[in-house]
């Protein structure tokens, strides 16, 4: 079943910097924008780019992500010659059942990739917010006769030390890779998006495994090996909206930006839709005491309080007299009466009892985790 290109979405990250928001679910499964999950953007990009064979590589807390992705039908990937396939770590060697890095995750799934005999493999992170036509990147890869093409995005030079930086020549060829350099030479940051010519990458992974060398991570091992061996490695510059939502602050910020109807992400573009698994929910209901300003309120919400510049995901309840401002409320959360929520993220199915407060301070976002509860009557010992 020959395919020109297939995608491998790396979606097994724990996302520890998101704290209690990823205590029970993997980062790519975290809710975003009222009705989406973070992984929806990578999967939608694949579907819109015409890449119909997608391996979703999972590891940490995979249950919710498995249920969400399924066979890829929500993204139109479940055609007769396509589909999304859940790939989880396995091994016949005791104690070796976890992926040791991004490249090791691909190595463990060589059989899956070879089933399609692809010319190229697209490797993606499942935890970024962006829209991208991967076919344009593939055309660039072919034009340059590249062994590897790395998606890069310009970042402010003062922030470049937080990223892997690609130093290039005038043709766009990568001549040096620096991992989080103290004094970066430029601002081209790796997006964690790679197109590999598959036969060459497979040779690197198999040969190094046979020689018991480390070839576990693309950033730390594979890219430096390609550069040492003078492979054709090029940078593909992306200049549209892209957000790494790996911290509480960046997740909150991305959701607040998402409220803007003129957002650069252009979520309402019918020519490049972001798909998701739809949840059956009743229509939203706003009572006569509700007051909603500059906010997103999705299906199943019941609002009897005030909501300003916030996102209410599906099936959220807001009681009378409550005030929600500059906050992101995940699905199924219940907010009682006379509650104040400001500069906060509330996790799925969390409960805030009557009269409680959740307020961020000094640019620090307040967080309530999945299924967590605050306020209410306390048990007396």
Automatic annotation (TrEMBL):
Pathway: Glycan biosynthesis; glycogen biosynthesis
Residue span, Nucleotidyl transferase domain: 7-257
Pfam families tied to this protein: Hexapep_GlmU, NTP_transferase
CDD domains: ADP_Glucose_PP, LbH_G1P_AT_C
Entry binding sites for alpha-D-glucose 1-phosphate: 164, 179-180, 190
One GO term of the biological process aspect: glycogen biosynthetic process
Record's keyword annotation contains Iron: no
Assigned keywords, A-Z: ATP-binding, Carbohydrate metabolism, Glycogen biosynthesis, Glycogen metabolism, Nucleotide-binding, Nucleotidyltransferase, Transferase
Keyword ATP-binding: yes
Subunit structure: Homotetramer.
Similarity field: Belongs to the bacterial/plant glucose-1-phosphate adenylyltransferase family.
UniProt protein name: Glucose-1-phosphate adenylyltransferase
Species this chain originates from: Pisciglobus halotolerans
Biological classification of the source: Bacteria, Bacillati, Bacillota, Bacilli, Lactobacillales
């Amino acid at each position: 079943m020959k395919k020109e290109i297939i995608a491998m979405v790396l979606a097994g990250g724990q996302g520890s910097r998101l704290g209690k928001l990823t205590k029970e679910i993997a980062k790519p499964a975290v809710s975003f924008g009222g009705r989406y999950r973070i992984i929806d953007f990578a999967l939608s990009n694949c579907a819109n780019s015409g890449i119909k064979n997608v391996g979703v590589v999972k590891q940490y807390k995979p249950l919710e992500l498995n249920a969400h992705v399924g066979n890829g039908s929500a993204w139109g990937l479940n055609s007769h010659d396509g589909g999304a396939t859940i790939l989880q770590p396995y091994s016949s060697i005791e104690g070796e059942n976890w992926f040791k890095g991004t490249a090791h995750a691909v190595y463990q799934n060589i059989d899956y990739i070879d089933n399609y005999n692809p010319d190229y493999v697209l490797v993606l992170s499942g935890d970024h917010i962006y829209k991208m036509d991967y076919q344009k990147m593939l055309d660039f890869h072919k034009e340059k006769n590249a062994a590897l093409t790395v998606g890069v995005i310009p970042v402010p030079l003062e922030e470049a030390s937080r990223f892997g930086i690609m130093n290039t020549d005038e043709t766009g060829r990568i001549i040096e890779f620096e991992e989080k350099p103290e004094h970066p030479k430029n601002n081209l940051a790796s997006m964690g998006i790679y197109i590999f010519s598959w036969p060459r990458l497979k040779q690197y992974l198999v040969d190094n495994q046979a020689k018991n060398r480390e070839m576990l991570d693309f950033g730390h091992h594979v890219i430096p090996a390609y550069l040492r061996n003078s492979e054709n490695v090029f940078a593909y510059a992306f200049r549209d909206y892209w957000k790494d939502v790996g911290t509480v602050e960046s997740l909150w910020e991305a959701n607040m930006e998402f409220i803007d109807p003129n957002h650069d992400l252009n979520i309402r573009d019918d020519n490049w839709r972001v798909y998701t698994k739809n949840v059956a929910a009743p229509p939203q209901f706003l009572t006569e005491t509700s007051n909603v300003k500059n906010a997103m309120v999705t299906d199943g919400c019941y609002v009897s309080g005030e909501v300003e510049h916030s996102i209410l995901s599906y099936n959220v309840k807001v009681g009378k007299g409550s005030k929600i401002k500059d906050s992101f409320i995940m699905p199924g959360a219940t907010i009682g009466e006379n509650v104040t929520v400001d500069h906060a993220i509330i996790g799925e199915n969390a409960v805030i009892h009557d009269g409680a407060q959740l307020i961020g301070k000094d640019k620090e976002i307040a967080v309530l985790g999945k299924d967590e509860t605050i306020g209410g009557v306390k048990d007396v010992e």
